[in-house]
Amino acid sequence: MSVSQSKHSLADFAARFKLELIGDGDRTIDGVATLKEAGPSQIAFLANRSYKKQLPATHAGAVILKEEDAADCPVDCLVAADPYLAYARLANLFDHRPAAEPGVHPTAQVAESSRLGRDVSIGANVVVGEHCEIGDACTLGPGTVLDAECRLGAGCRLFANVSLGHGVYLGQRVIIHPGAVIGADGFGIAFAGDHWEKVPQLGSVTIGDDCEIGANTCIDRGAIEDTVLGNDVRIDNLVQIAHNVRIGSHTAIAANCGLAGSTTVGEYCLLAGGVGVGGLRHLEIAERSTILGGSDVTSSITEPGITWDGHVPAMPTGKWRRILTRLRKLDELVKQVHTIETDIKKRTQNGK
Q1: Which of 37, 42, 176, 310 has the most CB atoms less than 10 A away?
Q2: How many domains does the chain have?
Q3: Is the residue at 328 inside a domain?
Q4: Three-class DSSP labels, 116-147
Q5: Is the separation of the CB atoms in 21 and 2 below 8 Å?
Q6: In sequence order, what DSSP letters do the residues of 153-164 get, joined into one string?
Q7: Tens of pLDDT along 248-297?
Q8: Residue 210 counted as domain residue
Q9: Which residues of 279-313 are buried (b: 16+ CB within 10 A; e: fewer)?
């Protein structure tokens, strides 16, 4: 539930976001909440059909919903083709987290060779290395560290304890949440017979405009060329992006995903939580692919626009062990079937 300091009329919402108003345009709203928890001065939304059962009993001041649900709404409503998108835009009006004040905190360390744009905010204990370029209106949260030669476009916001490795480039309006590490070395090692030797990671990371990187996500620098994210890429918390991965614009990747080195992901792809992408060869995922949660992708996806799902759902232990026992005998069973097929084929031929 969110209660803000500002108020807006339903008529204002309708005009600003081009929504159809059904009800009292003078009703004022001061916050957003769920259908179940909303009060008379708050607005809720109905986007997921499984929550429609909560609509008749809602106490919200208004509800954002589709036209087909308007007749069942007991309160004023705003009709949208996509209620969740409309809610996302409207809810921004109630985000009153204070903006950082421009200036450099006394405990920050900024190299003299670095250049800061206008209205930049540098928080406590921030370190900015040599020859960095920080664009206008950027915010660096407390404890954030930028290695040498990083470049940030205008309007970037890095929350607390973000780390950028050497030479990382961020486009404009990039948001990076606490604890993310961008540009650490990729996992490059060569076996020298009796020990491992490190392969130098000579590339960096390039991130396009309007991207968002979740908390504690790691994006490794490239081994030779850069690891690259296109524009408007959205990455959730605790995601691992290995060296030399390339992610196309407008792709979204949910929490706990892992992408092996040199994977290429097309534009407008959706990877749900816990997806693993990796195989013996460098994999490619075609544009507009959707991969459902917990799936393992071990070979390239070449046909665009397909939904993929490859995992075994949890089941009682006894049942899983019985299935596993049968799986171990599968190779033997295939050989037996092949022998029978061969025998039948020979008998058929002899019969002729």
Answers
A1: 176
A2: 2
A3: yes
A4: ECCCCEECCCCEECCCCEECCCCEECCCCEEC
A5: no
A6: -TT-EE-TT-EE
A7: 999 999 999 999 999 999 999 999 999 999 977 789 999 999 999 999 99
A8: no
A9: eeeebbbbbbbebbebbebeeebeeeeeeeeeeee
Which range marks the domain in which residue 322 is found? 317-351
Residue 212 contacts by C-beta under 8 Å, 6 or more apart in sequence? 174, 175, 176, 177, 233, 234, 235
Structural contact between residues 207 and 174, judged by C-beta atoms closer than 8 angstroms = yes
DSSP 69: G
- Residue where a domain terminates, one of 59, 94, 129: 94
Q: Which residues contact 143 (CB under 8 A, 6 or more apart)?
A: 123, 124, 125, 126, 160, 161
Final residue before a domain boundary, out of 63, 94, 125: 94
Which of 188, 189, 218 shows the shortest CA–CA distance to 205?
218
- Pairing status of strand 28-32 against strand 2-9: antiparallel
The answer to whether the CB of 13 falls within 8 A of the CB of 29 is: yes
CB burial of 46-71 (b: ≥16 within 10 Å; e: otherwise) equals bbeeeeeebbeebebbbbbbeeebee
Report residue 328 as tokens.
């171990």
What's the rounded Cα separation, in Å, for the pair 59 and 77? Answer: 12
Helical axes 10-17 vs 83-91, angle rounded to 10°? 110
Q: Could you give the percent of the chain with pLDDT greater than 90?
A: 89
Q: Of 176, 189, 223, which Cα lies nearest the Cα of 203?
A: 223
Its pTM stands at 0.88
Residue 52 in any domain: the answer is: yes
User: How many H-runs (helices) and E-runs (strands) does the chain carry?
Assistant: 4, 38
- Residue 338: DSSP 8-state: H
Can 282 be counted among the known catalytic residues? no
Among residues 8, 105, 243, 311, which one is catalytic? 243
What does the pLDDT look like over 321-346, one tens digit per residue?
999 999 899 999 999 999 999 988 88
CATH code of 80's domain: 3.40.1390.10
Write phi, then psi, for 12 (nearest 5 degrees): -65, -45
pLDDT in tens, 213-259: 999 999 999 999 999 999 999 999 999 999 999 999 999 999 999 99
Whether the CA torsion 326, 330, 331, 337 is positive or negative: it is positive
